[in-house]
Design brief:
two-stranded antiparallel ribbon; mainly alpha; 75% helix; single chain; 11 helices; elongated; 2 domains
Length: 270
């Protein structure tokens, strides 16, 4: 039984998604998540607190495609306003401390005016402003942790291995962000759906991308150690006449036997 690939999964659509990939790591996944929640669950009624007008989960694939279309539209709006994604990301990072401070300050003042705790209100609002930009901050932190691996692959294996490692990292980041957005729409519990979906998406990304350069190097080292006398080594000392480094037991015994065979007096005494 073959796997049915949706008709909208085409090379043309893949290129469209690839163009907005940095934006997707930044804010695009949040745009898609909000769009998908609205399409599937509908709009929340301010009186009853219930969602109405949603398409439900029956045609989830169609809803998912529409959410990506809305994300692409938001990306085009960023380009029209800021000229490039990198200008937008730079401006967002520069403005982030001010956004957090202003949100905390205004909420704290409002809470004090109402006779409530201004400190807690400020912390809550400031944290909310940070969480709003968490996809950008989280993606940058994730990529920062992967830079050493990309650099090591480039240094030891050349530009081809470095580019391959960077591609793997991109696939894993995309899997996490897309999984988090879809998971939050499927499990509408704050942060819970995003965490579960992100973990599953990251795992899928790891399966698609394959093992990292450092993981392959570690496995090769372990295999090499196992092949050297089952890995049973002992230090023979730098003045050892046999090796001057580390030797396994079989190699040492072979060296001793060779010396005995070449010196009859040692064999006689033995």
């Amino acid at each position: 039984m073959g796997i049915s690939i949706p008709s909208y999964v085409t090379w043309s659509n893949a290129k469209r998604f690839g163009k907005m990939l940095p934006y997707y790591w930044c804010d695009g996944s949040v745009v898609q998540q909000e769009a998908l929640e609205r399409i599937v669950r509908g709009v929340k009624d301010p009186v009853t607190g219930k969602h109405v007008g949603g398409a439900g989960y029956k045609h989830f694939g169609r809803s998912l495609r529409q959410s990506f279309v809305e994300t692409e539209s938001a990306y085009k709006g960023v380009l029209a306003r800021d000229g490039s994604f990198f200008k937008y990301a730079g401006k967002t990072l520069r403005n982030l401390p001010g956004e957090i401070w202003n949100a905390a300050k205004s909420s704290s003042a409002a809470a004090k005016a109402a006779g409530k705790s201004g400190i807690w209100a400020g912390i809550k609002s400031g944290g909310g402003a940070l969480m709003k930009r968490f996809p950008l901050v989280g993606s940058l932190l994730y990529l920062a942790t992967e830079v050493p691996g990309i650099a090591k692959a480039t240094w030891n294996g050349g530009l081809v291995d470095g580019a391959a490692e960077a591609l793997k990292v991109g696939i894993k980041v995309t899997g996490f962000t897309a999984g988090a957005a879809i998971g939050q729409a499927l499990i509408p519990i704050p942060f819970v759906g995003a965490v579960i979906g992100g973990m599953l998406g990251n795992k899928l990304g790891e399966i698609i991308a394959g093992k990292s350069y450092e993981e392959k190097q570690e496995e090769a080292q372990i295999a090499q150690n196992k092949g050297n006398g089952n890995g049973e080594k002992f230090d023979t000392g730098s003045t050892n006449p046999f090796n001057g480094g580390q030797m396994n037991q079989e190699e040492v015994m072979a060296q001793i036997q060779q010396i005995i065979d070449s010196n009859p007096e040692l064999r006689t005494n033995a």
